């Protein structure tokens, strides 16, 4: 180490200078005797020699090198010569790694160190390079994901494939903690379930012939005995794992976490180096705890915690000699983990805050001073990786002691500025490493995590309403239950406090990484973090499906919450220092970030489409509104080939998967300078070239924007400087010029929103399953207890089984309720809820500001709208009932703001993506379902409400109309005829005990929005006609599809060879039925609110719409009410998936429309409606009688004709033998006759009377019509429908038809039926009277 020698020589020059002075200072070099005593004290000889200092040989710096070499050689183990010899019982190379050349089957990703592996095919297997045939051996597996894996031992003869792995062949043995089994051709139960973060030890005893497994150091018992042994038999460590599962191996390259007495690791520890490292560390400790008193010329003992690097030459030269030997050893992972990490952890063991232990800072200064750069870099890297592993694979104990221990050391190291910047640049964000530090894993095994001691009393809800939902505050809670609940809540609070200690340390780490004041050693930490964070986001956004780069969602959730806490703290700190800037509670992302090219959004979709397209189409708007000119070279490069995604220049934002993994991209010519260095993995990031600073009083200059790599951005590019807006470049005139203290935080806030969109929301939804399980088991337990009470005493066998079930359910609930306490503390706590709420508010404000910029709104990324909708959904569905949304500050106002966004943007022409439009529509549909959010929609300004209703009433063609229709239906539910149910009434009649029936929200109609709808439809006649025409068209389609589907289902059901129906077909069938019902309800709503659309024949299309309505209603009635018809048969099959298909929903909807036009209207309207209904050739009076259950008894002539005409259908059904369905009265007459009288809970007396009035009215009208109708000759009938008389003549061609046919035809086509001439007019036609 010549360079080290150079360092020492320099120090010696200092020594000579110092020795020239007559009186040495306290900090200087000491006299010869004192120096010799000091060096003998630091480096005591191990050989016996004179104990008295005066008799010892004088030791100076000249002899120190040789003395130290001699001491180190004395310490080396005598048997070291044996290190190169192969150990008996083991064959293979050292170090032991995974055999990536020949020892694998299937597709796998193997880490660079050949110790980590990720499965990339159905069931991949791989073995190690070294085998054992004698003795006792062990290795450890670090479980990174808890899925399907089989871990153990195999021989060279084992042949694996995509279906069979370790344990599936005769000479292989495996443990599978996913299914909790052991495998050796056959399988039996064994061990415990593992979770991500556990360590499995695999032990083989080839003297006794046994294999044992341990989980986190606890033996699971002997798994296999009498394993095959003998000549030619040797066992390799091996694993089989399914797709995306991942593990890390430790064969002995690092100290085993749980060594077992008597068992050797497969790889030898570096014994000689280990002894040397411990010896050198001992010398360092002695230096730290010894001070030289030059006044009294003596050595003093002192506490090493107070040691400071003061530049004392004696101490520095001594340390330099030690580091000559110590530094190279600290590049080896085993020694860093075993020696250095344990030493540093020992320093912190005394407790107190990390800041109270300055020794670690002093030691790191020493490392940077006395070690080569490459050595200190490698040492810090290995130290940080060891800490990451230690943190990630530590078991959970009640006080989270391990986690706190490792986080404190990490914090202490990151306090050191130079080390922090090196780690940030080189280690922490390479493939999501640092995110591990912000994760708190959820214990799978409650007992081992100590939750039984922490939460001794468990509790779960025991009071449920009729729909199986737990009541929040049951009035009849017993005293015992109340005590249990309070004890459980106290336990949860204790747990939460312990978790908060860890969270606080994690936030401290992030605060250090977000430090923007540490500029003494180059760029501040925050700007390094910012660029690394952006790269981390890109890898997760563009590598979906590439498991090596993806951050697990459970890590992302914790990282998001810590980052929000840290960013808000930094933001508020900055805003306190600069008066006038706004606080984190008012934070949003200014719209210029979306188009000024300062922040990279990679290949993420914008609201207006692709970025390259927007830059071309909106370049004039950018110039006029934001004073930004897109560089012409960029537009040219993007327009060369818009379709070729792989060769887009950095100006566009669509890196292909291959390019994202390291391929160089073509760049504009003015970027191809040699100073840019390596090809950029991080694509399309933009920076700016400023021409002139903005002056507010004069006309602002245009700023030319061009793209540059993210690594090239400086602090000035982000924060800005004199006349430079930094990230806020290109402020549009609509955007207020607000002071933002730290502009760099804006980009982190933007990244947080992106993180939530990438995987956090899905993970929040996934973790709710534990709460659902608690609820299900609680319902099951309550049900079992009720059965035990009802069980007759003579049936001891049943009682015994019920008590066993009760015990199982109670045990499961004890376990789950403790696990739920952990999840509620780490994921669904009040603080986490406030974080998600803050994120929702940030998104809302960002969208509002972007919306104000007019056409530039198209540049906003789609994920802002997604996160706004998803965050609201999470707050409403995932965080309750533990935390209520109503308690959030400003909750009502936020709800109204979100309602305004949904109402405005679901039909916004600036948004082009079909997926985001669909999401907005679904969110609005969900919003109008619940009273609170519906009231928020009603609170938005009237102008916006009316615009929303206008968009909802646009014609249903060329757009996703089903969602719009659901929204209108939800505004009506609760007002329609018999439309107040929360459960489908027919289901409650057939399966009243089933708690899992589909349940609807309680009706909450909006009279205000109904009024807007009525005003719009009555004032805008064209819109009303086109809207209703489209609703009738869709109803015709949906009901026809439904009838076609049930015909196929009926045919499939009666085939003897195939008695099942495709579930997808059943789902489509049920959907068509639901659509038909909802379209009928919208028609009922329209006819109730604006009857004149159909009944005021002065409106141009009223008569036509009424005729079409009558035609469709008659078709529906005839299909559903005919005796023993197809509809009856399919309903009586009671197929799973078709629960919603029944007479009630559809017939009540039709009845509602008929009652409105025939009973509730004025005299003229009702007579018009009756005449149109009766003149329709499909009208049958018995269909109306059927509604009141009279059709089958009265046997009117039309009814008897219908039943006689369909003998085949009756015989068809007899082969199926459907089950009898009981009516409310308990008889099987329900199967024959539907009757509104049976649904007294859902249909009021008044409604029934109206139906009876309608039936009487139609009976009378039909008699009169039959008496007065004169027979019509065939020539006088319309040649299109043959149902009505000719009543219209076309101009100019003079062809004729009835008015209904031509009006309907003209709504979609202007050509004549017969001659294809363009129709210019239609006139009334009446047949001339014959003379």
UniProtKB/TrEMBL annotation:
Domain RING-type intervals: 1278-1316
Protein localization: Cytoplasm
Q: Which InterPro entries match?
A: B30.2/SPRY, B30.2/SPRY_sf, ConA-like_dom_sf, RNF123/RKP/RSPRY1, SPRY_dom, SPRY_RNF123, TPR_RNF123/RKP, Znf_RING
Q: What is its EC number?
A: 2.3.2.27
Q: In which pathway does it act?
A: Protein modification; protein ubiquitination
Q: Which SUPFAM superfamilies match?
A: Concanavalin A-like lectins/glucanases, RING/U-box
Q: Which GO terms describe its cellular component?
A: cytoplasm
Residue segments, region Disordered: 1-22, 637-664
From the Swiss-Prot or TrEMBL record, what is one GO molecular function term? Answer: ubiquitin protein ligase activity
Q: Major place of localization?
A: cytoplasm
Q: Which reaction does it catalyse?
A: S-ubiquitinyl-[E2 ubiquitin-conjugating enzyme]-L-cysteine + [acceptor protein]-L-lysine = [E2 ubiquitin-conjugating enzyme]-L-cysteine + N(6)-ubiquitinyl-[acceptor protein]-L-lysine
Keyword presence, Zinc-finger: yes
Gene Ontology BP, a term:
proteolysis involved in protein catabolic process
Q: Which UniProt keywords apply?
A: Cytoplasm, Metal-binding, Methylation, Phosphoprotein, Transferase, Ubl conjugation, Ubl conjugation pathway, Zinc, Zinc-finger
Assembly information from the UniProt record: Component of the KPC complex composed of RNF123/KPC1 and UBAC1/KPC2. Interacts with UBAC1 and CDKN1B via its N-terminal domain. Interacts with RIGI (via N-terminus) and IFIH1 (via N-terminus).
PANTHER family cross-referenced by the UniProt entry: E3 UBIQUITIN-PROTEIN LIGASE RNF123, RING FINGER AND SRY DOMAIN-CONTAINING
Protein name, UniProt field: E3 ubiquitin-protein ligase RNF123
Species of origin? Parambassis ranga
Q: Which gene encodes it?
A: rnf123
């Amino acid at each position: 180490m010549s360079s080290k020698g150079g360092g020492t020589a320099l120090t010696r020059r200092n020594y000579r200078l110092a020795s020239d002075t007559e009186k040495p200072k306290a900090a200087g070099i000491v006299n010869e005797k004192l120096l010799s005593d000091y060096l003998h004290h630091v480096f005591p000889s191990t050989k016996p020699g004179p104990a008295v200092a005066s008799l010892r040989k004088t030791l100076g710096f000249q002899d120190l090198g040789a003395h130290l070499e001699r001491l180190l050689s004395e310490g080396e183990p005598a048997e070291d010569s044996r290190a190169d010899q192969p150990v008996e019982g083991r064959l293979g190379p050292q170090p032991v790694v995974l055999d990536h050349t020949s020892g694998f089957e299937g597709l796998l990703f193997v880490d660079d160190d050949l110790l980590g592996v990720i499965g990339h095919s159905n069931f991949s297997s791989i073995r190690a390079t070294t085998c054992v045939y004698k003795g006792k051996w062990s290795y450890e597996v670090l479980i990174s994901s808890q899925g399907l894996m089989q871990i153990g031992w195999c021989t060279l003869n084992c042949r694996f494939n995509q279906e069979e792995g370790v344990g599936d062949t005769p000479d292989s043995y495996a443990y599978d903690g996913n299914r909790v089994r052991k495998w050796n051709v056959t399988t039996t139960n064994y061990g415990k379930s593992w979770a991500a973060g556990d360590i499995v030890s695999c032990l083989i005893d080839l003297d006794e012939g046994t294999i044992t497994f341990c989980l986190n150091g606890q033996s699971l018992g002997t798994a296999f005995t009498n394993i095959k042994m003998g000549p030619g038999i040797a066992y390799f460590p091996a694993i089989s794992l399914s797709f995306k599962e991942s593990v890390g191996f430790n064969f002995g390259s690092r100290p085993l976490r749980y060594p077992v007495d008597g068992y050797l690791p497969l790889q030898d520890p570096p014994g000689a180096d280990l002894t040397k490292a411990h010896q050198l560390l001992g010398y360092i400790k002695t230096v730290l705890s010894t001070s030289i008193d030059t006044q009294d010329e003596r050595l003093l003992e002192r506490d090493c915690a107070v040691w400071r690097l003061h530049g004392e030459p004696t101490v520095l030269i001594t340390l330099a000699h030690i580091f000559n030997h110590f530094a190279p050893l600290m590049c080896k992972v085993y020694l860093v983990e075993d020696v250095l990490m344990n030493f540093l952890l020992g320093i912190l063991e005394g407790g107190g805050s990390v800041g109270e232990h300055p020794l670690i800072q002093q030691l790191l200064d020493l490392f940077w001073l006395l070690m080569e750069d490459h050595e200190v870099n490698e040492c810090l890297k290995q130290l940080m990786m060891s800490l990451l592993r230690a943190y990630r694979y530590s078991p959970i104990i009640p006080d989270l002691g391990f986690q706190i221990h490792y986080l404190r050391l990490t914090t202490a190291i990151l306090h050191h500025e130079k080390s922090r910047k090196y780690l940030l640049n080189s280690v922490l964000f390479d493939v999501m490493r640092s995110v591990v530090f912000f994760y708190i894993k959820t214990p799978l095994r409650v007992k081992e995590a100590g939750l039984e001691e922490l939460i001794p009393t468990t509790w779960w809800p025991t009071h449920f309403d009729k729909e199986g939902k737990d009541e929040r505050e049951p009035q009849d809670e017993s005293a015992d239950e109340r005590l249990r609940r309070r004890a459980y809540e106290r336990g949860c609070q204790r747990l939460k406090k312990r978790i908060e200690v860890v969270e606080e340390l994690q936030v401290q780490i992030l605060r250090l990484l977000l430090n923007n004041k540490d500029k003494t050693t180059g760029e501040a930490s925050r700007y390094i973090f910012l660029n690394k964070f952006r790269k981390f986001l890109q890898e997760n956004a563009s590598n979906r499906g590439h498991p090596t780069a993806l951050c697990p969602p459970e890590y992302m959730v914790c990282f998001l919450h810590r980052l929000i806490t840290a960013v808000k703290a930094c933001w508020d700190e900055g805003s306190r220092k600069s008066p006038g800037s706004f606080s984190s509670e008012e934070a949003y992302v200014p719209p210029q970030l979306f188009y000024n090219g300062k922040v990279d959004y990679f290949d993420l979709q914008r609201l207006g489409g692709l970025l390259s397209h927007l830059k071309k189409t909106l370049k004039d708007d950018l110039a006029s509104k934001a004073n930004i000119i897109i560089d012409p070279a960029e537009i040219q490069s993007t327009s060369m080939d818009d379709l070729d995604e792989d060769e887009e220049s950095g100006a566009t934002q669509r890196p292909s998967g291959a390019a994202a993994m390291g391929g160089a991209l073509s760049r504009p010519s003015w970027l191809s300078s040699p100073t840019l260095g390596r090809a950029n993995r991080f694509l399309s990031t933009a920076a700016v070239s400023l021409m002139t600073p903005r002056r507010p009083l004069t006309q602002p200059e245009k700023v030319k924007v061009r793209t540059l790599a993210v690594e090239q951005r400086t602090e000035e590019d982000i924060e800005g400087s004199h006349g430079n807006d930094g990230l806020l470049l290109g402020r549009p005139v609509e955007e207020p010029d607000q002071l933002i203290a730290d502009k760099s935080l804006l980009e982190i806030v933007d990244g947080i929103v992106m993180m939530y969109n990438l995987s956090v929301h899905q993970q929040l939804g996934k973790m709710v399953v534990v709460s659902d399980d608690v609820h299900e088991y609680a319902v099951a337990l309550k049900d079992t207890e009720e059965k035990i009470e009802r069980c007759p005493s003579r049936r001891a066998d049943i009682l015994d089984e019920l008590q066993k079930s009760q015990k199982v359910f109670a045990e499961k609930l004890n376990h789950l309720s403790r696990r739920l306490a952990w999840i509620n503390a780490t994921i669904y706590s009040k603080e986490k809820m406030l974080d998600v709420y803050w994120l929702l508010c940030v998104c809302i404000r960002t969208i509002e500001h972007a919306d104000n910029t007019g056409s530039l709104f198209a540049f906003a990324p789609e994920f802002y709208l997604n996160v706004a909708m998803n965050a609201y959904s999470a707050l409403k569905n995932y965080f309750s009932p533990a935390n209520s949304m109503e308690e959030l500050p400003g909750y009502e106002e936020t709800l109204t703001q979100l309602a305004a966004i949904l109402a405005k943007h679901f039909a916004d022409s600036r948004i082009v993506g079909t997926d985001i439009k669909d999401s907005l529509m679904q969110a609005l549909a969900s919003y109008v379902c619940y009273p609170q959010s519906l009231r928020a929609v009603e609170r938005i300004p009237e102008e916006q409400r009316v615009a929303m209703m206008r968009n909802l009433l646009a014609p249903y063609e060329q757009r996703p109309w089903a969602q719009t229709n659901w929204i209108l239906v939800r505004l009506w539910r609760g007002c329609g005829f018999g439309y107040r149910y929360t459960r489908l009434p027919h289901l409650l009649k057939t399966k009243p005990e089933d708690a899992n029936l589909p349940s609807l929200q309680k009706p909450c109609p909006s009279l205000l929005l109904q009024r807007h709808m009525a005003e719009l439809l009555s004032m805008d006649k064209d819109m009303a006609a086109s809207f209703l025409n489209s609703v009738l068209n869709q109803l015709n389609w949906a009901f026809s599809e439904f009838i076609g589907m049930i015909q196929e289902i009926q045919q499939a059901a009666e085939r003897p060879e195939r008695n099942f129906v495709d579930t997808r077909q059943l789902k489509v069938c049920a959907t068509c039925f639901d659509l038909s019902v909802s379209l009928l309800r919208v028609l009922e709503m329209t006819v109730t609110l604006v009857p004149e659309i159909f009944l005021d024949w002065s409106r141009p299309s009223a008569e036509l719409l009424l005729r079409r309505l009558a035609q469709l209603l008659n078709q529906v009635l005839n299909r559903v009410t005919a005796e023993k018809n197809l509809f009856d048969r399919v309903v009586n099959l009671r197929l799973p998936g078709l629960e919603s298909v029944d007479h009630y929903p559809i017939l009540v909807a039709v009845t509602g429309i008929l009652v409105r036009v025939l009973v509730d209207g004025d005299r003229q309207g009702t007579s018009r409606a009756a005449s149109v209904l009766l003149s329709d050739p499909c009208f049958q009076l018995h269909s109306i009688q059927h509604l009141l259950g009279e059709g089958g008894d009265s046997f009117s002539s039309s009814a008897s004709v219908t039943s006689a005409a369909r003998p085949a259908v009756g015989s068809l059904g007899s082969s199926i033998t459907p089950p009898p369905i009981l009516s409310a009265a308990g008889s099987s007459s329900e199967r024959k006759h539907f009757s509104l009288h049976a649904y007294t809970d859902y249909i009021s007396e008044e409604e029934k009377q109206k139906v009876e009035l309608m039936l009487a009215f139609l009976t009378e009208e039909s008699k009169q019509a039959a008496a007065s109708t004169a027979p019509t000759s065939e020539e006088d009938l319309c040649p299109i429908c043959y149902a009505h008389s000719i009543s219209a003549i076309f101009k100019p061609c003079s062809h004729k038809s009835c008015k209904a046919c031509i009006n309907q035809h003209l709504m979609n086509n202007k050509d004549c039926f017969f001659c294809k001439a363009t129709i210019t007019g239609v006139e009334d036609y009446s047949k001339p009277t014959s003379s």
